[in-house]
Amino acid sequence: MLRVIDTETCGLQGGIVEVASVDVVGGQIVNPMSDLVCPDRPISSQAMAIHRITEAMVAGKPPIEQVVSRYHGSDYYVAHNASFDRRMLPEMHGEWICTMKLARGLWPGLKYSNQALREALKLEVTPPADLHAHRALYDCYVTASLLIRIMNFSGWDAAEMIRRMQVQGSSTTFPFGKYRGSKIDDVAKRDPGYLKWMLKNIRDLKPDLRSAMERALSADQ
Prior knowledge:
By secondary structure, the protein is of the alpha/beta class. Helix content is 44%, strand content 16%.
């Protein structure tokens, strides 16, 4: 069983206002759960404009500490941009799988938001009719459908998806810029000047990305 989970927050720095999940079992989406949550800070206007969860909707709701145990019990948690949801839910002790990272490796050159991938891959999704994009349960259905497509397309099980993410974590592909999604080794062959420019001018490159670029340039000489 893979548990797809999503949080909506007061802003990029946290403060959960909604948590939801669905389970993927045998290629089917089952066991939907969702809770509105009283956050530990005000909801920013920017966040409210995205998920449309208001202060009135969460007034009197329990804090995340009182509901999070409902979402425990899976060996694997799946999220789109999992690093964010994992940071919001440190209580989840299973392995985490990121559909955004996997999609970047499988389908380079696309836009990688949930909704963009839904359109580009023509995912068959039937989320609750009373919800909309950027509500937690709605986004769980989209992510679960993307996860099923990834597994059907690649043949990977959970262990292999985690392994592939670890390979990507070693920065074999560009995570941003004009070559986003392209293999660093390929860019070193056709546009080594671009790598050299990045190494010289972008000081805050992640160490693993910098190392991968330096290795690719050395191998191509």
